[in-house]
From TrEMBL, chains A, B:
Residues 242-322 form the DHHA1 domain. PANTHER family: BIFUNCTIONAL OLIGORIBONUCLEASE AND PAP PHOSPHATASE NRNA. Pfam families: DHH, DHHA1. Residues 22-162 form the DDH domain. InterPro entries: DDH_dom, DHH_sf, DHHA1_dom, Oligoribo/pAp-PDE_c-di-AMP_PDE. This is Bifunctional oligoribonuclease/PAP phosphatase NrnA. One of its GO terms (molecular function) is nucleic acid binding.
Length: 325, 325
């Protein structure tokens, strides 16, 4: 197994020696995927290389401020005219994550696989993988340092975006000293951190606010104050014109109440099926809890589907949470 | 005017030469005030000095994890037995901010004034003031570096707390490259950043969640989608058993909706008086807006009291906001 430093050098060599690259990231690209795609594009443009950026699916509207974000082709809008024999995949834990963009990979394509997911299986010809990096943007930060290119606010903003989003605004446990040192350097280049935090972390859709309101209206606490839950029905989703992604973060509200150990969002799928999302304040392993119902996840964030009515599901789940407390 | 470096050295000398200090911060101490008090205490304990930490008012419950937080005396619980002739004031923009703790300053007390507020008028015998520091904790970070003491996780956690809270979780415009470089060093010492973010920024009281829900139930948007507002009545406050501080942050919800330029919270004080809190997404100077109603504030966060019923205040305010858009 080669060292990270060796992989950086190997990747550097690949980028210097070839030309005409296809740069792709994963389906439903998030902040780190978009930022990493653009960071590679920015580097290749500095090196005077030809490149094409491509995704299956559109980039999130809120990321349109990024350097050349509009140049990432969206496969949903039509195929590219040709195939590429030099491909750079960023933030894709496995090959299938590139989605339909693989249609444009030549059958003998050389692939560079740049990623931070611990589960990455090394599907590339060159693999630049750092499982303890907070984001793929962190790896690109290191890679770009190996080149003699002058960094500007565009590349700094792209890398900052990846670090900000993949660390949940510098709040998750992957926010390492290295991340913060990198962020310090990026701010020095003029990144507008407050604007990015507002745009990427604080902005909400109207549907999101409305459905949050519906959920909070159903808030209940256990007599001990250690379990709190809210629920959402299909009718709520319709009334609020809310999309599934608008539910993101709602389960944190019951969890964040002082004294609460387990917060739960019950989302009614249909009359006899409920999706329960669990968040733990630390004491309870909600992955184990979710497994009882055939679900899974992480120790502090997990979920399960329960084939029952909401009225039946709630006491069933509460009883199980109580057993885990 | 002496340089910051000179002030650091002068403060260092003061702390080395004397003994038996009183360390105070401002009334209603916040994260930076508490952290800075404890950081000075930690340093003095390393130097083998005698010291007493004192506040008017209790330290917030959520900060009880801090090193020796329980040792900060609360004046509300009774006077100290004596006066002090060596006093260190932290995070107090003017002398009156120390509140009743001044009862325990000897009339000829030497005062060290350590603060980051631009309005600080230099009331100390020694003034260590850096107006562009994000927090008083940032100044203490620099001060502590001038001593040969070994930093541990306790002092790192205290300084991190001050930086985290005074930058709104590293999101305000005072989040400088220097802050992030300091944070990187503090994380290296083992600070549990995710735990601190949860405890200090994400935890809510039950009253807070309930009153947020009430406010969101009143959400309205202008036909253009650029003004959004919510309201809270005295009855809501009673029903939710909410305190005034539970309203903090609510006005961000209307402001954070995509497309909204001005978010407003109308808080009914009594039948004929309403407090309007304004938040701007950037385009509108809400300080100027608030001034129209005899209020004031900053360009992006301001407020005013309007002597009218809620029904009359809303259209009056909306008309004025429209004029500023």
């Amino acid at each position: 197994m080669q060292s990270y430093e060796q992989s950086l050098q190997q990747t550097r060599k690949f980028l210097l020696e070839h030309d005409d690259y296809l740069v792709v990231s994963h389906i439903q690209p998030d902040g780190d995927a978009v930022s990493s795609t653009l960071a590679v594009g920015w580097l290749l443009s500095c090196l005077g290389k030809k490149y094409t950026m491509l995704n299956e699916g559109p980039i999130p509207q809120r990321m349109e401020y990024l350097w050349h974000a509009g140049e990432i082709a969206n496969l949903a809008e039509g195929d590219l005219p040709r195939e590429y024999s030099r491909v750079i995949c960023v933030d894709c834990a496995d090959f299938q994550r590139v989605g339909l963009t693989q249609r444009h990979f030549a059958s003998d394509a050389l692939i560079v696989n740049i990623d931070h997911h611990p589960t990455n299986n090394g599907y590339g010809s060159v693999n630049l993988i750092k499982p303890d990096a907070a984001a793929t943007a962190e790896i690109l930060f290191d890679l770009l340092k190996t080149f003699e290119v002058e960094w500007d606010i565009d590349i700094a903003t792209a890398l900052y975006t990846g670090l900000l989003t993949d660390t949940g605004g510098f709040r998750y446990s992957n926010t390492s000293p290295k991340v913060m040192a990198a962020v310090s350097e990026l701010l020095e280049l003029g990144v507008n951190g407050p604007m990015l935090a507002e745009t990427l972390l604080e902005e909400m859709t109207l549907g999101q606010v409305k459905v949050l309101n519906r959920a909070l209206s159903t808030l209940q606490l256990s007599p001990e104050g250690d379990i709190a839950w809210v629920s959402i029905t299909p009718q709520d989703m319709l009334d609020c014109e809310a999309a599934n992604e608008d539910l993101e973060g709602i389960v944190n509200y019951p969890r964040n109440i002082r004294g609460v150990e387990v917060g739960i969002l019950f989302k009614v799928i249909h009359e006899r099926a409920v999706k329960a999302s669990f968040r733990s304040a630390g004491k309870v392993d909600v992955a184990a809890l979710a497994q009882v119902f055939g679900g899974g996840g992480h120790t502090r964030a997990a979920g399960a589907r329960i084939d029952a009515t909401l009225e039946d599901a709630i006491p069933m789940v509460l009883q199980e949470v109580r057993r885990h407390l």
